[in-house]
């Protein structure tokens, strides 16, 4: 009888493939797949659209280990129907995204974006530089998962007061106070910085809209590194134009790449980054820290211990 | 007999002037000065070039409270000759400069400078973005004074390994290890980031020169927020062009404003900011925390307790 297959849909270094084989000696590890092998696939690492139908309909798939944190692009209801376990890569990108967020805050507060523009024009303009102090500011993390917790910990010695929002308002370590998402518009009123790190679900669609922006301080900054469609782009553009809030930094967008005719490109008080906040060095090592732990547990008792996604909830 | 005069060469809010009068009731507080009053000046806050000769030659000056941290623009040998005490504003700018430095590090590591340039061209370029992780990096602070200590503390929760350089290599809290300035070229070899926060003295003139840049890693970043002439500008420009080091961020320059024909403006791997790192909110409050403490002690026993400059040493 053929061994069940662990199908790696992304390249990994030989050292990691060796570890997979050591932990799961009864499995075969494939990076390519023939039609005959399809039926034996039990575990897949990564998820490519072009293999989706084949895997769902013709394999013996039991576990999908996604590489990304967000899983809204996966066929969650199909997984549920077929009793397929799903785990994600949440946490891998946490340090990078946290550093990215702090970078955007300080780049704005210390006039670095403005300085870069002035430098291109060979312009020495001290008087025109906007500056402020991060230390002492109130920052609201909307989404208190891996990234939110990492961000909160990283901000600790920078003197920032970090508050959190999650579905129910349940307390989370590292946050001064956490509130329910129901109270978002009320809570942003007292915040100097609002950071969106939400997954894409029906409940979070366009949750950052004109109502929220209208409740924010005119001096406030908004950062989004969650899903692009958690932000109502047009209403944010209007709010920025009208100085309803002072500055925004977006790494994710409703449409990516951001179309060249988007009005966002021209906004002086917006920093656009091209979905790079999660790019991280040593990605394979960080990913394998999750996958190998899950694999060990899976071969022993068929369950996952890290980052299992609740399929109904979507994260 | 006329009261001795505290001469404020910069504007301060009424609340602070009231506090000065409360602490030093036997003094008169002036923001303007007539020729007749000159002889009665005993204390000055701030130092303007146009008043220099008059104060040195015709006043009864005993104490100069400078507003800046660096005092290399002051007539230190004259102060010494006339037994004039000098204190500086070191520490006022520490949080701002520390935030500025961290901002420049993360702006480089997270591709924000590049993104700003791409945004101006409406260019979505994910593949071309340089990214790296600050956490885990080795950072050398050259100059372990107020700012260096603040920087080290702020970096604590960001996972950076902070080393220090000072004159003698004496240990300083918050640094994993401190080394003598004599060993600078050797020590930079192991560092991912080198931050210059040195005062301008004969000993520090052009201390960051081709010898140091040649010893740095090709992947390393250099930041200077100390005095402009601690850097040999031409040799840094050459080192950046030759990729002897990867990136630099300069806030101070040998000539300010940086001349429009400087070759620095065009360097892709350099961030230029126009001497703004020390700009700080609540400046008056931060300054008065130093001055009022000194004033209280000065009127009681003629000595300073905060930030006294050793005139021979120059800081």
UniProtKB/TrEMBL annotation, chains A, B:
InterPro entries the UniProt entry points to: D-isomer_2_OHA_DH_cat_dom, D-isomer_DH_NAD-bd, NAD(P)-bd_dom_sf
The domain of life is Bacteria
**Keyword NAD among record annotations:** yes
Pfam families linked: 2-Hacid_dh, 2-Hacid_dh_C
UniProt domain D-isomer specific 2-hydroxyacid dehydrogenase catalytic: residue ranges = 14-306
Chain ranges of the D-isomer specific 2-hydroxyacid dehydrogenase NAD-binding domain: 103-277
Keywords linked to the UniProt accession: NAD, Oxidoreductase
| SUPFAM superfamilies attached to this UniProt entry | Formate/glycerate dehydrogenase catalytic domain-like, NAD(P)-binding Rossmann-fold domains
What PANTHER family does its record include?
A: 2-HACID_DH_C DOMAIN-CONTAINING PROTEIN, D-ISOMER SPECIFIC 2-HYDROXYACID DEHYDROGENASE NAD-BINDING DOMAIN-CONTAINING PROTEIN
Q: Which family does it belong to?
A: Belongs to the D-isomer specific 2-hydroxyacid dehydrogenase family.
Q: What is this protein called?
A: Phosphoglycerate dehydrogenase
**Source organism of the structure:** Candidatus Enterococcus moelleringii
